TrEMBL record:
Protein name: methylated-DNA--[protein]-cysteine S-methyltransferase
Pfam families per record: DNA_binding_1
Enzyme class: transferase
Transport found in the keyword field: no
Gene: ogt
Taxonomy of the source species: Bacteria, Bacillati, Actinomycetota, Actinomycetes, Mycobacteriales
Any GO BP annotation: methylation
Known EC number: 2.1.1.63
Gene Ontology MF term list: methylated-DNA-[protein]-cysteine S-methyltransferase activity
Annotated PROSITE patterns: MGMT (PS00374)
InterPro entries reported in the protein's UniProt record: MethylDNA_cys_MeTrfase_AS, MethylDNA_cys_MeTrfase_DNA-bd, MethylDNA_cys_MeTrfase_DNAb, MGMT_N_sf, WH-like_DNA-bd_sf
Extent of the signal sequence: none
Catalytic activity: a 6-O-methyl-2'-deoxyguanosine in DNA + L-cysteinyl-[protein] = S-methyl-L-cysteinyl-[protein] + a 2'-deoxyguanosine in DNA; a 4-O-methyl-thymidine in DNA + L-cysteinyl-[protein] = a thymidine in DNA + S-methyl-L-cysteinyl-[protein]
Source organism, top-level taxon: Bacteria
Residue ranges constituting the Methylated-DNA-[protein]-cysteine S-methyltransferase DNA binding domain according to the UniProt record: 80-161
Amino acid sequence: MQISAARTVHATPLGNVRIEASSVGVSRVVFTDDAPATPTAENSCALEYVVTAVAQLDGYLAGTRREFTVRTDRSALSAFDRQVLETLESTTRYGDTTTYGALARALGRGPADARKVGGALARNPLLMLIPCHRVLGADGALTGYAGGLPVKRALLDLEAVDLLLPVLLA
């Protein structure tokens, strides 16, 4: 388990997020009811990861960033959870969606493993940085998201509007 060496609570248009980092990278981005707080750090490297994550999240939510480049620390994840999240990142780009079943298939697993995939996504400690909001139910329905379904819808809408805008202007 990684040790948080820097942390903050950052206000976003979708709610406050707790951001934590180790000396390896950002280890946690989760929605919280905690009040915004200035970053605190036990080491400057971890503080840099927190500050970078804040700037990149702000850019993403403002519609000016599509990808996150801040280093992440996934050392606390199980091998299966890490595999699920890495497969999601490599197969589902900005503005795209997938299903739990499709993600299970991409992992070389059967449809019965869709629930296991859902469990791994539910444990995602890096919300938005690892885009589990892009995963839908088999029928296209919005299903669980740690930030709540309204936040999931807002994130999907943010990405969809960005992709549709050039078509509307053409």
